[in-house]
Amino acid sequence: MDEEAPDRAWHQIVRDVLQRHAVSLVVYVPDNVLRPLIEAVHADPFFTAFAVAREEEGLGILSGAWMGGTRGILLMQTSGFATLPNVIASLAVPFQIPVLMIVSERGTLGEFNIGQALVARTMRPVLAALAVEHHTMTRLDEVEFIIDRGITQAVATQAPCCFILSPLLTGGKVFAA
Amino acid sequence: MAFPANHPTGRAQAKVLNRFDVTQRLVARLKHDEAVVGGIGYTNFDLWGSGQRAQNFYMLGSMGLAVPIALGVALAQPRRRVFALEGDGSILMQLGSLATVAARAQKNLAIVIMDNGTYQITGGQQTLTEQGADIVAIARGAGLAQSAWAADEAAFEELADLALREDGPWLIGCRIDRDKPKQTTERDPARIRDQFMRGLGVK
Questions:
Q1: Chunked in runs of 10, what are the mean pLDDT values of chain A (177 residues)?
Q2: Is the dihedral of CA B166, B171, B173, B178 positive or negative?
């Protein structure tokens, strides 16, 4: 394996791969872990980036943008994903719209909020039940491959894809004692 | 901003219009392949019944997302005018999307709200607009300054013409009756999406 120190953080890799795939629209409901990625896309004029009031709204915006010829991605945390099953099942999947999602994973590996820990358990079963392609990124060296191939497949097969940022990759959000 | 003075101040003062008639009046004015996104329920069925344009998108679930979908289309194609047709029950689910549209100041977007104060398709249960909520006032509060109730049919046409001609975002409130829709949308989502994308010149 390559033992050189990585020259880019996870959020820089994500930003670069999104740009390479012409994913220019970034909508989000913010999260502390996502902050460097959100700041990176706001700082780069290639991207149109803005916050929405609710995750469902973001998925609708991305669906309209895709049909109008623009690729986008929705950033959220685990509890935000939990608001999405109806719109994934009734819009993205049946209309065959390759909605891209990045979820910053809360509720595991040191979670301090019981609500987050409980809702987090619904995420992968929901994705599995809807047969939505999803991949968890745990190491820096797999970020580029997963995002790159995930976007390629989503577009080619006209199906949504969800990328999960593990605390193993990002450090997560830690208990402020 | 050219803005008509003869619009009523509140929902109670607006004439009760007919949804299919209003939809036909809108569609008749679309001369430049404007996109129309129909929300769920009878709003959608009457858009279908008014003639199946390639630039119409018929949402079949995801209640409340007509405005976000229309915003996405408008962002992707800033030179095309985009209309969202939404019911009162639906927009009440995504009031935040009005603030998002206002924050984007999306010039090529217009929202038409068909408000009959009921969840008509599920048996006519009252929505919150029948109990005091005024969507136009809410929209103005969300930052959509160009929001107005259509006083009558002629006022609707005047507002629609403004939305086609002048920079938006616009919101037109229409009080409507509880007439049944003329047709039912064909529920074939992959075909609807494919035709819409071809209608927008993406495929």
A1: 73 98 98 96 98 98 98 98 98 98 95 93 98 98 98 98 97 77
A2: positive
The model carries a pTM of: 0.96
Residues of A in contact with B103 (CB under 8 A): 50
Query: Residue A47 has which token pair?
Result: 């991207």
- Rounded CA-CA distance B30/A151 in Å is 36
Q: Say if residue B179 is exposed, middle or buried (CB neighbours under 10 Å; 0-12, 13-18, 19+).
A: middle
Residue B34 in tokens: 């404007």
What is the torsion angle, in degrees rounded to the nearest 10, for the CA atoms of residue A51, residue A57, residue A60 and residue A62? 10
Main-chain dihedrals φ then ψ at residue B143, nearest 5 degrees: 110, 0
State how far the Cα of B52 lies from the Cα of B48, in Å rounded to an integer. 6
Candidates A61, A86, A97, A157: best to mutate against B (most CBs of B within 10 A) is A61
Q: What is the pLDDT of residues B27-63, one digit of tens each?
A: 999 999 999 999 999 999 999 999 999 999 999 999 9
3-state helix, strand, coil in chain B (%, to 5): 40, 15, 40
| Three-class secondary structure of residue A162 per DSSP | strand
Question: Which chain A residues are closer than 8 Å to B76 by Cβ?
Answer: 25, 64-70
Query: Cβ of B104 and A50 within 8 Å?
Result: yes
Interface with B, mutate which of A23, A25, A74, A95 (most B CBs under 10 A) = A95
CA distance B124 to B35: 29
Å between B94 CA and nearest CA of chain A: 7
Backbone dihedral angles phi then psi of residue B61, each to the nearest 5 degrees = -145, -140
Q: Does B37 touch chain A (CB under 8 A)?
A: yes
Mean per-residue pLDDT of chain B: 95
Give chain B positions within 8 Å (CB) of A97.
193
Q: DSSP class of residue A110?
A: S
Please calculate the CA angle A172-A173-A175 and round it to the nearest 5 degrees: 135
**Helix residue spans in chain B (DSSP H):** 19-28, 42-49, 66-76, 88-93, 96-104, 135-141, 153-165, 189-199
